Fold:
Amino acid sequence: MTAVLTPAVAARGIHKSYGSTRALRGVDVTLAPGRCLGLVGRNGAGKSTLVSILSGLQRPDEGEVTFDGEAAPPAGAVHAWRAKLATVHQHSMIVPELTVAENVFLGRLPRRRRRVDWRAVRTEAAAVLGEWGSGVDPARACRDLSVEQRQIVELARAVASGTKVLLLDEPTAALEREAVLRLFTRVRQLVDAGVAVLYISHHLEEVFDICDDVAVLRDGELVLTAPTAGLSTDGLVNAMVHGHVGGPTETELADQASRTAVEDLPVHVESADAAAGRPVLELRGLTAASEYGDLDGVSLTVAPGESVGVVGLISSGVVTLGRIAAGIESGDEGELLVGGAGLPGGDRAAALEAGVGYVPEDRRTAGYVGALSVAENMTMSITDRLSAGRLGVLGRRRMHEAAQPWADSLALVASSLAQQVADLSGGNQQKVTVARALARDPRLVVAITPTRGVDVVSKELLLQALRRAVDAGAGLLLATDELDDLGYCDRVLVLVRGRIVAEVPGGGRFDRTAMIAAIEGVASTIGSIGAGRGATSEEPGETP
Ligand SMILES: Nc1ncnc2c1ncn2[C@@H]1O[C@H](COP(=O)(O)OP(=O)(O)OP(=O)(O)O)[C@@H](O)[C@H]1O
Structure:
């Protein structure tokens, strides 16, 4: 006879609406001790809403949550919920001003005679971190930690609290390959020790790697819960899109979805660069010291109608390169030319005026204005063109007419074009950010990790939208850590520690393993990534 375990967490009949949006419609989910459940779904399907209800941040309109068969704490009883489960969010929730040890014990510092026992804080934090082999110094300020180290601190906090339930909300979004593998090992250790884990990710291969079971949300309804062992990626994508496992392959689904995007997007590029035979972007000997990664003498060009990918580790300077090209920050040495004309460094207004559209690496701080509507954000860069009459009044109707094709083509999930962007799901906010960058018919688009947090089908839509601008004659500089995105580029530059170490043809014609090794700075593999045309760095092919 098999023993029936009480679920560590059970959510039953959960309903949650925001105005007319029914984010969750009668969802039943259980998390079992010693099992990892993957939660997947398209952007706006309701995943974050479910996580916020399971972690006590929001109260459901209907339904109940139980822990070990007992009723959940009352809504708002933050400490009581934290004692039940730990959540690691996509965006770190640690306090940068505090040390690692203080963050590990945040909200429950060990005390002796009513005073905080600092010695215990340090030794216990060191014990937890040491056990995990992380090498993170408990005395260090969290401000100075890498993204991976911050997530380790969050996981250590969960472990130190002796949690029996762990919710991981897209934990790998900002991590790199080795870091992801290390994270998986740690999560597996927790599962083997009996912790119940809910793992949310848009990277379906991760779900197959780490989850025992998977649950699929579609339009707020749970359409599938099954062991991952009997499922294929195509089956999972079909469940996300249609609500059932059978149907076309993932590639066919993406093709179907992207056809409309290509046809209907209002992208026109009025640039004289092609006629003049000059590059849209030229960087000459760019050297920069930046918190986003240093650059060391980088030169590159992007031609009209060309898409150039730049790929590298977070610290490689890829993001810095994108920020300088977009006029967000300036280098210490070197030149930035757009359409043959020099631009002052770090002057976003001048870059915008020169026709540079920008998708930033952090949409929340620079991609959109949360308090404004979808339509206002999408048309923000073209208000001068849309304004009518002597007073230059911008009518709501004109704004909505201009925004509608973007919302349709990118399959935006919003209650209306008047909805505030702050209230959209993360992936849909990203779609608004991309639309905003393309709306002014830019001659150059600089996109940094544009598909982060976006579901597998919508990813195709965003990349097709960028491709559409390229086909219309714009140049694209695509800085990314997603190898799949590079398939859309005509050529790809690999950056290691601020230098271009290799150039390979795009279109997916590269050896993934060799590419990953090159990204990580293993020099011997560089020649075998693809039929490369030679590096363009100051010292070709050299790896530090
Ligand atoms: N505070 C809010 N006000 C209004 N609508 C909201 C709010 N929060 C979420 N929604 C809506 O609820 C729906 C579900 O959103 P949710 O963030 O749960 O989706 P998700 O599956 O996590 O998406 P993503 O993969 O893009 O992160 C969306 O239509 C979203 O616009």
